[in-house]
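A quick aside before the break. I want you to see a complete sequence-to-structure record at least once, exactly as it would be stored in a machine-readable document. Don't worry about memorizing anything.
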Amino acid sequence: MNRVTISDVAKAAGVSMKSVSRVINREPNVSDKLRVKVQAAIDALGYVPDLAARSLAGARAFTIGVLLDNPSPNYTMKIVTGAYQACRKHGYHLLLENLESARNDIAEQAADMLRNARIDGFVLTPPITDCEPVLAVLEAQGIPYVRIAPTSFQGRSPALAIDDCSAASELARHFWGLGHRRFGLVTGPPEHGAAGTRRAGFKAQIAELGGSIVAEEYGGFQFETGIGAGLTLLAREDRPSAIFAMNDDSAAGVMSAAAQLGLRVPGDVAVAGFDDSWIAQSVWPNLTTIYQPITELAFEATELLIERGSSEQGNGVRLLDYRLIERGSTVAP
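That is the input. The structure line, written in tokens, reads:
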């Protein structure tokens, strides 16, 4: 069977090859009528665009990159899933790059990565999303980018996020409504802006309600460091009756620490996390947490890059919905 060509699509749709190309490349100012007609022909013929030919014919490389630096495997997996789904939908390749944002040579890392790369744009994930040297390198080379959950340099690029502060406040009210008055915090990486926002939102709500934060320990978004934080918090004479960890991995570590100390969750200590990752329903009891749509954030961010010629997003932040998921790890003290 002969391979279906763009000429075949044009004939089937009754339009020019240039019109088909404009639809395939998602160029701006294409009418809905033309787009529907061409897409119908593409679907009927089973046409698959040739990425190499498309790249040579135009300015686009048909590749989207994602910059990662997050220790949580769940977060990374969901980001990759969302970005891949968007690339697959639009006929793009996906490139994954890891940068170590805590190193002083982050700008050099970014420049080395771009030296021989042909890329249409990058999705930046926390904490790289707030890393000014990386933003500067991308801007100097004229490479578009969309950021996920930025807390700095607002208005510098299109961005998507959830309201981390409000989400953490809602979790604080959940604890308070159950009757808890002494709280512990397991913090995230200091360079991770969203973790800081969650911490601030939780503390502000507890202060407003009249409760107290007994202590804070570093959890670093990892199960192992969550265990260490939990052991320290739960060994205190005035141990908290409820602990909020900035992500689910470290919250699961706190639950493990409680078990090591012979304490029951939630009977002796209530625990909650953030993200609604796979581990939230793998531990027992299942973890109360804040669901954030990580896959959807990555999908929408990738689509913004692909459709940037016709997008009306601008450089604002679009907020997606979150929700509190109550499970067995939180009950009254």
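Two observations worth writing down. The CA atoms of residues 3 and 47 lie 8 Å apart. The domain at 63-162+295-321 is CATH 3.40.50.2300 (Rossmann fold). We'll return to this after the break.
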